[in-house]
Design a protein that fits this description.
globular, about 90 residues, mainly alpha, single chain
């Protein structure tokens, strides 16, 4: 039995915002070549994208419909691709 607190809708939104902010910080001063060759940063960015995708799966359908301007399905799909197709991801 887990003592972990049940996550609420707001927690998932905060996870998405925090992960997106972290990704921006990680790549702020990097051009693509430096990013691509900096394995720690590429791993950190991939992890941030995984978090965004997983958190997006916790968002209600009603909220997604209300905020249809955001690519919810793409977020979730990217997470699945990174997790299940990690061997075929081309940054």
């Amino acid at each position: 039995m887990s003592d972990r607190k049940k996550r609420e809708f707001r927690d998932y939104i905060n996870d998405i915002i925090e992960a997106a902010h972290n990704i921006q910080e990680f790549v702020r001063d990097l051009d693509y070549d430096h990013f691509f060759h900096d394995k720690k940063t590429t791993y950190a960015v991939v992890r941030g994208l995984e978090i965004i995708g997983k958190a997006a799966k916790g968002i209600t359908n009603d909220f997604c419909r209300e905020h249809h301007e955001l690519p919810w399905k793409s977020m979730m799909g990217m997470r699945d691709r990174l997790i299940h197709g990690y061997f075929d991801v081309n940054l």
